[in-house]
Amino acid sequence: MLIKGSKKFFTVCLAMLFSATIASSDFLIDDFDDGNGESELNSYWYFYTDAGDGGTSTVNGLAEDINFEGPYEGKEGTNGVKMEFKLGTETGNEDVKPYVVFETEFVKNKVIDFSGTEAIEFDVKSDIAAGLSVKFVVTTSAVKDYNHYCHVVKDISTEWKTVKVLFTKDPDIGLAQEKGWGKTVKFDSTQIQRFGFAVRKNENDSTLSEGTLYIDNIKLIGNPNIKKFDEIGLVDVGSYKGDGLVSKFDDEDNPTETRLGSYWYTYQDAGTSKFTKGLDADEVLAVDEAGGQGGPALAMGFELGDRVDNDGTMIDPYVGLGMNLGTFDALEAGATGIYVEYKSAAGDKKFYVEMEVEDSEKREAGVAWHVKLPSTDGEWKGAKVPFDSLKVPKWATSPEPLDLKTLKKINFKISDAAVKEGTFAIDKVYFMDATITGVNQRILRKSVNGISIKQANNILEIRFDGNKSIAGTNVRLMNTMGKVVVAKNVNTESRNCVLPLGKNACGVYLLQITSGNGHIETSPVRIFR
């Protein structure tokens, strides 16, 4: 029997029952545990203040916009946002009260589709016992008058609390446009440009002068129509076979040599990151005879150290495996992409490897075309990576297209601070749809980190790219026992270095180049006679 007023109650219950039968697929935008200031949508977090309006408010003591690189302090001992702020007394605009903002912009001058999102959820606290008010702001392309959709979260005190804001127009528990000006526009979750958290004197006591805001675990609730930017789906091993096989590590004499006559190498940051498996007693890259799918593979163990200070810029820790290509013309070979079979340890759900592809173009430091390869959770999986799926970092100022005629190396870089240690193995690597006719082609010229290597008669010539600083660079050629057979410090006024080979026998040697900033790269080279 229904009583008066129960029809609405019945409808609500029915809706709740129906929604409970639909599998939810919440999307974690960022829990900040990786410590890199980048969200799972490839957007970067940043602070900005009222400086543009003539104000004097600061974040972390700076009066100008800054990228978010910490400090980190999150919920239950994890990483999170720690925004220390000071609000000024006024701005240059009498209609604008002092403010500071923590924000991310998803795609510059474009939009992202958040349809299917029911709410946004985040953890938040402050160091103000009396409570702090923070305005959560969502910017869509449809709103033109700065009266953006927002929700004011009140009474944020010294205890963490989880806040859920409905992704609908609702003045009490959802989003609503700023009142007082501008055209009323229907909220459109398919047209999201950015969102952020603002601390303003508008919502707080006018005497508020400084404090600290903490934010963690920002996620979309429901079934958002989102896939992680850059992330490639995985397929079963053996899903690709063809004539473009580059490497499978089964050569008994030179297992790290590719079918292009080039070699695999290792590299790591200038800090304390290291490989714990996969190198022999002389720290030389070694193939695990039983590390692959019933055969040999590169099976590596690693430990990531702390972030490294490079001339005032904090660099995330990293280790990596790379494959020299010489100068490979992918267009002539008919290649459409790269297929790789790999495995990461069971339980490493957050683990991912960044595959970087570089050509001979001279770009700004750190710019490479890349894609994220996700965790395989202890199973061998394959990843098909078409060239057109590779992306260049958003911060690149001049992202020239990838030159498929001059590919020079493929790197597999591990730089995820959420996973401090683990294992990673690589088996077969193909250029998809390519035809590589020459097996074990011998090439005398190859590139390592922007460095050209060429053997001419009885010398090894190393030439550095003209746009790189080579101050303090040390070059060492070692035999496979780790003995240094020749070494040289590079003159900072010169762009090349010549190593005399003397009477050293032909065969495989290790060329180790240590740059002035401490970056170490070791690559096998074959000396011919």
The CATH homologous superfamily of the largest domain corresponds to Galactose-binding lectin
**Alpha carbon gap, first and last residue:** 97 Å
Summarize model confidence as the mean pLDDT: 82
Q: From the structure provided, what is the oligomeric state, counting identical versus distinct chains?
A: single chain
CATH level 1 class label of the largest domain? Mainly Beta
Tally of strands: 35
Instruction: Using the CA coordinates, give the radius of gyration.
Output: 27 Å
Summing up helix and strand content along with how strands pair, one would put the structural category as mainly beta
Which bin fits the share of residues in helices?
under 10%
Largest sheet: 9 strands, antiparallel
What's the CATH topology name of the largest domain?
A: Jelly Rolls
Q: Mind telling me which CATH architecture of the largest domain this is?
A: Sandwich
Lateral strand order in the biggest sheet: 24-23-26-21-16-35-34-31-32
The outline comes out as: elongated
Tell me the β content. Answer: 35-45%
Could you say how many structural domains there are in total? 3
**Which residues form runs of ≥5 with pLDDT under 50?**
1-22, 438-446
Q: Count up the helices.
A: 2
Labels describing this entry:
4% helix, mainly beta, 529 residues, 41% strand, Jelly Rolls, Immunoglobulin-like
Characterise the protein shown here:
This protein has helices spanning about 5-20, 330-335; strands at about 25-30, 45-50, 60, 65, 80-85, 100-105, 115-125, 130-140, 150-155, 160-165, 175, 190-200, 210-220, 235, 245, 265-270, 275, 300-305, 310, 315, 320-330, 335-345, 350-360, 370-375, 380-385, 405-415, 420-430, 445, 450-455, 460-465, 475-480, 485-490, 495-500, 505-515, 520-525. With about 525 residues, it is mainly beta. The chain folds into three domains: about 20-220, Galactose-binding lectin (Jelly Rolls); about 235-440, Jelly Rolls, CATH 2.60.120; about 445-529, Immunoglobulin-like, CATH 2.60.40.3080. The strands form six sheets. It has a nine-stranded antiparallel sheet with strand order 24-23-26-21-16-35-34-31-32, with no helix packed on it. A hairpin with a 3-residue loop joins strand 28 (about 445) and strand 29. About 35% of the residues are buried.
